[in-house]
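Batch job 17 of 40 flagged for manual review because the log was empty.
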Amino acid sequence: MNHLSLIIKREYLTKVKNKSFIIMTVLSPIIIIALIAVVGYLSQLNNNKQRSISILDESGLVESIFKSTENTNYVILNEISLDDAKKQVEKKEQYGLLHISKGETIDQVLEGIKFYSKDTPSITLMEGLESKLERKFTDLKLQEQGVDIEKLKSSEAKISIAQESFLGEKTSKIDNVVKLIFGGLAGYMLFMFIIIYGNMIMRSVIEEKTSRIIEVIISSVKPVQLMLGKIIGTSLAGITQFIIWIILGGVLMTVVSAIFGINMTEMQAPQQELMQQAMEAQGADMKIQSLMSAIYHLPLTNLVIMFLLFFIGGYLLYSSLYAAIGAAVDNETDTQQFMLPILMPLILAVYVGIFTVIEDPHGTVSTVFSFIPFTSPVVMLMRIPFGVPIWQQVVSVLLLIATFMFTVWFAAKIYRVGILMYGKKPSYKELYKWLKY
């Protein structure tokens, strides 16, 4: 394979010097950061918007629960009729008017709660108001029935079941969520890399085949060398592009934040107020500590090493199939009939990873699919954070490597015949015959 390094170099330089490659490498992070900046700017505009809401509480039961916040100002109205309150709110162009009418019983008061506004009010705002009123009126109804609210609240029991393995390893629900996120990101990155750069390899083969350059190249290079050179060279170009995206994206993010004053880390959702209330109720400090502890206890070294091995092995495995498809057809339109058998294992792997690994990472389904080479790069990466024995990881990697070597041999058989075939879309039967040549 003395020509392999030359082919890799040629493929790499051809890709990185291509005008469309250079343009997309530069433009892609600019477009993405521009979109993020626009979203961040619009989000800040929305968050900085002050809403003034008047409260007309004729019942005199709940006006004390409305405390103004940074973005919402509550104005308490007293000794004014509903009609005058409406006119006042409309004249001052306030966001709306919340009216709580009188009633002999709490149930009657509940039936008379209305919100008046010029336009349709925000769903999030209405949920916040309803949440405040529900808590207050629940306490009032309990008091009406002779229940001591303080005793009731002090008697509430909050359960958080501690989790520990027989070996003494402590875990929690947050640990499982963090593990799933890390594993899911690793599997998703591999999935997207295969789709994007696998197609790049396929198009490269089709271009050289249709331009007849391949006939000259194949006279001095073995088909398997040419195919491997294309796969590795294109992969290196893809990695180069990916690294440039990360560096350029980080620089642009910093520049945009500094020039336009958009703090990406403080982009707030419209539901911020509700989320803050929920976190306060559930003990946010404890949850943050649990989250940091979960990240700290992740097997990061194991994850990084296995991510590289499965990432490289899985990408090379599928890239060889993409190269074989590119050699078998004359244009991208004809590739559709061969794409489904390649994409199905990847889609199945993502499905198994999301819907099975999270529930039972060491179950039969998760374990079996983490050994099948066409699904193991995704499924095993999602299982590893949950604690997979090293021998299982090693066996899975060896099976992946062995399958890659077989797939290269299989794809080279199709490649050496397909790259010289023109004008006819092959069937699966013809591809089978090519394997015998």
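Reviewer: the log was empty due to a logging misconfiguration, but the result itself is present. The chain has 17 helices and six strands. Unflagging and moving on to job 18.
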